[in-house]
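Researcher: Please translate sequence to structure tokens.
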Amino acid sequence: MTHPAYWYDQEDLEKKMLAEYSFEQVERHLEFLTKLTRRAGTDDERRAAEYIKAKLDEYGVEARIYEVDAYISILKDARLEILHPVQTPLPCLSGAFTPPTPGDGVEGELVSGADLNQSSDLSGKIVLIGGPKKSRKAAEQIAHAKNAAAKIYITPGKERAICVERLKTTWGNPTPETIDQIPKIPAITICNEDGYLLIDLCKKGSVRVKLKADSLREYRPIHLPVGIIEGAQEPEKFVLFGGHYCSWFIGATDNAAGNALMLETARVFATYREFLGRSIRFAWWSGHEQGTFAGSTWFADTFWDDIRDNAIAYLTVDGLGRIGSSGYECRNTEEIRNFHEAAVRDTLNLQVQSNRITKTGDQSFHGLGLPSFTGKQDFKVEQSGKMFTEAVWYSHSAMDTPDKLDMRLLEIPFKVNAVSISRLCNSRVVPFEFVNMAEDMLKALRGLQTECKAMIDLSALIKQTQALKDNAVSLEKTIAKIRSALNKKEKDARLKQEISRINTCLMKLSRILIPAFSSRGGKYRQDPAGTPFTPFPNLQPLNKPGEMDPDSHECRARKTQLQRERNKISDALVLANTMISDTLNCI
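Model: Translation complete:
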């Protein structure tokens, strides 16, 4: 029986789709994909793209492959030799986007750990970087600030795995603003065991090493397979479902498993296409690590108008089915959080608490304001090993092979994703809620006001955000009334018009509020890889006010910057409040 909140019998549709899942189909896709080293811009990448399109054609899904000009890196020569106190070569890989070392390499004293802070100048020295992400980032910043000659990264793995280190953090193809940020210090990576060998040698005395590193850094054509299943009620509106298919090696878990699952999802939805109200666009991204997410960034830039006006939400998959993972980790933007958690609860009978999306994994649509979510089984803290090891120690290494996959686990994200996509396609009212977002904004602004009141007054923003919360509550009440009318099977032209106005409002609110709340670069720039999307990042003080001289040029410049950032947020809040008020006045 069709529930009035949906265009079709959603409960029956979900049961049929979940029963359609084929373990054998997923396994066959994996068998093909894991025979290819799918580096962006190579023949194996193209073969994988052609395979994906051929399967979409077989399923009756409209498909094409876009050829994209992307600035990518492919690893070239790398060598490392200890010269003193012993003489021995060590296996290594070049860092992605590393500049070439001059001549036959760089020779210098190795500096590690606390010695980084104690040295005022690292010119001519080679820096050893290891440990958890925060300490690695801090050591990297010191190396750059103190003019290190080269860097050696210790792989967070075991069994002598060497993981590729991506050095470029600027997102997508370079722009005039970011072209000077292409890495300038040569770097290599070594295995964890050899990292500890070097650390122990440094503790005993002076260590001298010589390294050579090089990588291709050029524009090459990459390929993006895209498939479209068209909905029957609002075909112009769509859910975007994406995941990268390129990899450093064969990438069984990163991301061949996700690619295979996307193909299976396309097959199942193609079977039930007549029961979809909105469309689905499947996109397999290339240029993920090799291009710092160049493929999905190109897609966002190229189809900006269509995504802005018609995309409902973005779901991405990565790192699925890893042996030993359990539970279900949800990451999402605030307005889609309750919807995502409900899909997990209804599908897996599992209560989850979400984390915020971060600027990783082809999250190229955040500045545009597209509601986004992702999920997978995760690892417990105690599953990370000793030294610098991580639970997924094989990621970005040649050891990410099919034996790291538990095929039985892949059905779990399939279920959550199929239910989520079908509900987004068939919900008469798109399932976004802005009350929680407004509450998070209020909390953040009040905290910043306490911390920064000597520098800037945020009281007007707090008042505007309180109004946003009140308006969001009123909007939710109106939506509840509309759903009640649907439950009573009211079918008049006015109700249909009201739903259209509400959906337009909800989509425009996401476009306004997501970048204002959590993007440092704003709508038209991409934040660097790894950005945590701290609430109101441009209002976060660079230094605590108490540590700054209020009469200094630095403090005064900071005040001017903060005032301008405050004004941007004020404009966004006024626009959002006006959007809700105008919508409610028409209903």
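Researcher: Any highlights?
Model: DSSP finds 15 helices and 14 strands in the chain.
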